[in-house]
Amino acid sequence: METNGNIAILGSGNMGLAFADGLVKSNTYKPSQIILTRRSIGNLSKQAEEGYQTTTNNFEAVQQASIVVLAVLPQQIDTLLAEILPAISADKHLVISVITGVSCHAIKAKLGENVQVVRAMPNTAISIGQSMTCVTTEDARQENVDLTKKLFETVGSVVQINEDLMSSATALCACGIAFFLRAIRAASQGGVEIGFHAEDALKMAVQTAKGAADLLLIHGTHPEHEIDKVTSPKGCTIAGLNEMEHQGFSSSLIKGIRLSALKAGGLYTESK
Question: How confident is the model over 114-131, as pLDDT tens digits?
Answer without folding.
Answer: 999 999 999 989 888 899
